[in-house]
Amino acid sequence: MKKRAPWLKLIMVLTYLFLFAPIIVVMVMSFNTSQYGTLPFVFTTGWYQRLLSGVGLGKATWLSIWFSLLVTLAGSLVGILTSLGLRRMPETWARRFISWLNLAVIIPWLVLGIALLMIFNFVGLGRSYTGMFLGNFVCVLPYVVMLVYPALLALDKNVEYAARTLGASPRRTLVTIVLPALLPAILTSSLMAFMVCFNNFVIQYYLAPFGIRTLPMEIYNLVRVGYKPDINALATIMILVSVSLVLLVNRLGYGSKKGFF
Amino acid sequence: MTKSRIKTWLLMLPGAGTLLSLVLLPLSLLLLFSLVTGNQISLSGALSFKNYLNIFEQGLFGPLMWKSIRMGLLVTASSILIGYPVAYGLAKVVKPRWRNFLVVMIIIPFFTSQLLLIYSLMVMLQSQGPVMTFLALFGLDPTRSILYSNTAVYLILLYQFLPYMVLSLYSSLVKIDDNIVFAARSMGASRIRVFIVIILPLTAPALFSGIILVFIPVAGSFVESNLAGGTKGMMIGSLIDSNFSVSLNMGRGCALCVLFLLIMSVLTFALQRAIRYLEGRRL
After folding, report:
1. What's the DSSP call for residue B46?
2. Looking at A70-128, which runs of residues are DSSP E strands?
3. Alpha carbons A198 and A216: distance in angstroms, whole number
4. What single-letter DSSP state applies at residue A43?
5. Residue A203 class from Cβ within 10 Å (0-12 exposed, 13-18 middle, 19+ buried)?
6. What ipTM was predicted for this assembly?
7. Minimal Cα distance from B43: which residue of A?
8. Contacts of A97 (CB under 8 A, 6+ apart)
């Protein structure tokens, strides 16, 4: 059977145009001299120089990177432990637990952020680094479990039984058999967790300590004030970083073959 | 209890503790906090329904909630209409060599800052920006712009959430055996009939998760309408947010959250029933 379907391909082309034209326009505009994104196009790298010399954004960027690394570390660790625990439970229970955990992703982060702010206020934590950490941690955890648990289920249990029969302790089986086999899933989920935390504006907006601004909060303020070509430069850098991370994830064997959901 | 059971419980402890203390407990306590008037969170005052009465006297909740639901329905319907052909194309039509690349492209927005996505669409839509310059060719005034209107908010939300629907449908479509479709076609079923009788029931669970992933966040969004909605762009999310960032009436804000969650749960439940019906309907 021939697979032509011209109208289907037209819809696909238009959709990809809709999704990527804005990103490409922003990238092109970041090299344009005009301050208001208007034509004619005159090449410059001035906006990048201005961005890189800008001290304000640099500070927020470092804060976001360190903070997201910490959250990713905690999220991956607890996510792996939870996945290991879930495998030892009946699968229907495990699925139920995961769907409860997914509430942290499905419920708008506005509502979750408010709920967390209220309970942190109540216990006297208030807006603080600890609160912001916990808030982002709970948003990241479902993603780790969503990716690691299915990978764990797909492992051949016979390999572990063989290792155990040959006299390996449970811990040694875990370290030499299970964790190496899970490595692609663990790396993918860590990258995912990092990006989710790094870009999580709403939770940080509600839980960040007073006077502290993470990168998404800085971007929000910049965008609210209006068009500034140095946001174009920043957007270009961040999108290029995202694209390289996605390609990395794809190399690790995820992406289209196993699917994110 | 056996040693193995204890080990399972120990492994589950951090995750289950997080779920309880950082998701379920805060969400249930919202109900309690919504009964406290004003900004006190010490819970020393008497509990009352004043916040709820106040919300209904204010009269903003109904219209804004309805507007957010309408926006959610519109964005969800559009993403289903676009998402099915695109996901089907990715799963069944595109050559395997291209497929991987195109799916990876769809994943990119998940790894990008939502704020930057919003911003890049705002650049497209601004007056004298690319879209308006293009429309000027057809005689429209390029200095006018659809930015700062509900249309802009709709486009931005669709732009942000369409990939969720496409990926969700794709992951289900790709598992459908091509031969089932071929068999139906060769026995004379039209394309539309194939879609209704085979594809729709088989992808119903993915459709459900796609709708949940698009509709609920869109209905609860506030950043998009704050940035690109202009003066008339307010949605229920903006109203909830304003009780914390502008007027500092936390009790009322919590009451609004409770009402919002209540309505969303009812809608989700109704949707689940509808999808179950769809799933079971095989001829």
Report:
1. P
2. none
3. 8
4. B
5. buried
6. 0.89
7. A122
8. A86, A89, B15, B16, B19
